[in-house]
Specification:
The complex is a heterodimer of chains A (about 90) and B (about 575).
Chain A (H helix, E strand, L loop, with lengths): L6 E7 L4 H17 L4 E7 L4 H7 L6 E6 L4 E4 L5 H8 L4
Parallel strand pairs in A: 1-2
Antiparallel strand pairs in A: 1-3, 3-4
Chain B lengths: L12 E2 L6 H4 L4 E2 L3 E6 L5 H15 L4 E5 L4 H7 L7 H4 L4 E5 L7 E2 L6 H14 L3 E5 L2 H5 L4 H18 L2 E7 L3 H7 L1 H9 L2 E10 L2 E11 L9 E6 L2 E4 L16 E2 L4 H6 L4 E2 L3 E6 L5 H14 L4 E5 L4 H9 L6 H6 L2 E5 L7 H14 L4 E5 L10 H18 L2 E7 L14 H4 L2 E10 L2 E11 L9 E6 L2 E6 L1 E3 L2 E3 L1 H79 L5
Parallel strand pairs in B: 3-8, 3-9, 4-5, 4-7, 7-8, 15-19, 15-20, 16-17, 16-18, 18-19
Antiparallel strand pairs in B: 1-2, 9-10, 10-11, 11-12, 13-14, 20-21, 21-22, 22-23, 24-25
Classes of the chains: A alpha+beta (about 90), B alpha/beta (about 575).
């Protein structure tokens, strides 16, 4: 087995809204469980940086983008359905 | 599109600039509030929403944002290219499209909300000072939630955000057969309760003819016209048939007369048709309705007025050729650009579409005299219900514009009411001429009568309409034994009268000659007598002179005798 890939995430949230808070918690839990020590998370708060949301066309929040390893994957929502998230990220369930 | 410079009439309303719609809603959409625009696929929601933004930017200098959830902005701009809105220019500053079509690859896990979008929009709106905003197909992102409660929550969020920012907003949503859709999507009916104004667009087919209409379902705090209003897609976008509310009439009534093109008909009408009035010519096929219409147009063109001829019956060129045979020459005016002909023979389409086309052309050419031949064609299959309304609005519109409108109307022999017209145009027309056939002694002749002519003295007599190479004229119809004589019978009668007149003239001449000779004779005799009288007078004078001479001579003689005798002086 090759060296496990390093995961880069960007999570767009809308302040401390319930959905956004939940997404942050869920992402942290997944990373802790499956990607310990091999992940990076950038949090973008669209309420503070609306221009970025506009530029990246992120309209529905929370919104997760897996930047690497390729291909890029996008998941909208609180990430509560863990199976869907793991499948999208190519991680074993 | 008309560039209106007048300020909006009602500050509480944001005018849409859509012809007819602002009249129905007494000024436009509620300013700073939300309007829900519902309709089935292809009902015109997107175009109407975009037109509202375009006109807001153009007329009221209010920048707008269009949030496209379903169709990409590229396609929307391409679809609207034909309306002449010059979107690329507007998009530089006053119009912004936000493309937020969910990608087919988008994965959803758990609930989400619209906060991100609203934050982004807030920034954009602030940057460009947007006042109007459209959410096109808001049902698309909400459907991804798969949760009616969450959908409702997001709609609240959206609505609250719109109100807080005082945007004049339009939200469009699909309605696929009103009842079924509302039943499956109760959150949509919830939305209807939430918004301040609701408009429904409908697209139906009646006997294969497309009929579009819109209806204002609700409008908080404002009066509005509650009926279905037909609309069409015109050259500049939506055009709604807003009937003028009573009391808003601003028709300028004219006393000016315009010639009918037939001198004797003008006489019958005490000077011609009124400018801006509506004239109806009814009659069976072949009674020369088109010919009279042609005469009217020729007269208009000779006065130098822009005119238009709309023929539903035959090709305009054919009509021109046919009319030339009775010395009505229209071709030259077509070439001069005075007469605009429009043949709509094979065109199918709703009466609304026809009305819109006619209005567009008439406006473009600034037409003063308009002929529709025949107006009854508007009531072709599929249009029976709307035709009357369309004809009424056509007349209303021409009066408003001061256009003199002449309509012909075809009657069918089988019709129950021979002098009635299918669309009851006869009741609203100002002047109604009826043409009929009179079959008599193996001849078929045309008769013309004035059924009514409001506001003018007019002849009550049936006249014979005579067509010849020299042109169109009317002939007095003779009545003999209670029957009206036309054609050959009239000619015979006229001939008899002519002969009688001729005989009278000859007799008078003879009498005059006799009198003249008698007069001459008397004059001669008078002259002879005068000469004789002169002779007598001369003779009498001569005689009296001889006598006095004699007396003088006698006296002189005596004196001389006295001298000779040396007599004493007396």
């Amino acid at each position: 087995m090759s060296i496990p890939a390093h995961f880069k995430f960007r999570l767009y949230v809308a302040g401390d809204g319930p959905n956004s808070t939940l997404a942050k918690t869920n992402l942290a839990a997944i990373c802790l469980e499956h990607l310990a020590d091999r992940h990076e998370i950038e949090i973008v708060d669209v309420l503070r940086e609306p221009q970025r949301a506009l530029a990246d066309l992120v309209m529905l929040t929370p919104h997760l983008v897996k930047l690497s390893p390729g291909p890029i994957r996008k998941i909208t929502g609180t990430l509560s359905q863990r199976e869907v998230v793991l499948q999208a990220l190519g991680l074993p369930c | 599109m008309k560039a209106k410079t007048i300020p909006a009439a009602n500050p509480a309303k944001a005018r849409t600039g859509i012809e007819g719609f602002d009249e129905i809603t007494h000024g436009g959409l509620p300013r700073g509030r939300t309007t829900l625009l519902e309709g089935g696929p292809g009902s015109g929601k997107t175009i109407m929403a975009l037109q509202t933004l375009v006109n807001g930017a153009r007329l009221d200098n209010e920048p707008g944002i269009f949030v496209a959830f379903e169709e990409s902005s590229e396609r929307i701009v391409a679809n609207a290219a034909n309306f002449g809105w010059d979107l690329p220019e507007l998009m530089k500053k006053k119009l912004f499209f936000l493309d937020v079509q969910p990608s087919p690859d988008l994965m959803v896990s758990g609930s989400f909300d619209l906060s991100g979008m609203l934050a982004a929009l807030q920034a954009k709106a602030h940057e460009m000072n947007a006042r109007r905003i459209v959410f096109d197909a808001v049902d698309v992102p909400l459907a991804l939630l798969h949760d009616p409660v969450a959908e409702r929550r997001e709609m609240y969020r959206l609505h609250d955000w719109l109100l807080k920012n005082e945007f004049t907003a339009l939200i469009t949503a699909k309605v696929g057969g009103a009842e079924t859709y509302a039943a499956n999507h109760p959150q949509m009916s919830f939305m209807q309760f939430m918004v301040d104004c609701g408009v429904t667009l409908a697209h139906e087919f009646v006997l294969g003819i497309s009929q579009r209409s819109l209806r204002v379902v609700k409008y908080r705090g404002s009066a509005f016209q509650e009926n279905d209003s037909p609309f069409v897609f015109g050259e500049g976008g939506l055009e709604v048939a807003g009937s003028r509310a009573s009391g808003e009439s601003k028709i300028v009534v004219s006393n000016e007369r315009v010639s009918s093109g037939v001198v004797r008909l003008d006489t019958m009408l005490d000077g011609g048709y009124y400018r801006g009035s509506t004239i109806l010519i009814s009659g069976f096929p072949g009674t020369a309705k088109t010919t009279l219409a042609g005469a009217f147009l020729e007269a208009a063109c000779l006065r130098g007025e822009q005119s238009m001829f709309v023929s539903f019956d035959s090709d305009a060129n054919e009509v021109n050729r046919n009319l030339a045979s009775v010395n009505i020459r229209l071709e030259r005016f077509v070439k001069k650009g005075l007469l605009h002909t429009k043949s709509a023979r094979s065109l199918t389409g709703s009466a609304e579409i026809h009305l819109m086309r006619i209005k567009t052309l008439a406006r473009r050419h600034k037409v003063r005299c308009l002929v529709i031949d025949p107006v009854s064609a508007l009531a072709k299959s599929g249009n029976e219900e709307t035709a009357y309304n369309v004809a009424e609005r056509l007349i209303d519109w021409t009066k408003d514009q001061g256009i003199t409108l002449l309509c012909t109307s075809l009657l069918h022999e089988s019709g129950p009411n021979l002098e009635g017209t299918p669309m009851q145009v006869s009741t609203i027309a100002d002047t109604w001429l009826h043409l009929s056939y009179l079959v008599q002694s193996g001849e078929r002749n045309r008769g013309l009568s004035i059924v009514k002519s409001r506001g003018m003295a007019h002849s009550n007599q049936v006249r014979e309409l005579v067509l010849s190479k020299e042109g169109v004229t009317l002939a007095d119809a003779y009545t003999a034994g209670g029957e009206v004589l036309m054609g050959t019978l009239r000619w015979e009668k006229e001939d008899a009268v002519r002969t009688a007149v001729e005989e009278g003239r000859v007799a008078a001449k003879l009498k005059q000659a006799t009198l003249e000779s008698e007069e001459a004779l008397l004059e001669v005799r008078l002259k002879a007598l005068q000469l004789e009288l002169q002779g007598k007078r001369a003779e009498k004078q001569a005689f009296s002179r001889v006598e006095s001479d004699l007396t003088v001579e006698l006296a002189t003689g005596k004196t001389h005798l006295h001298e000779l005798r040396g007599a004493d002086k007396a």
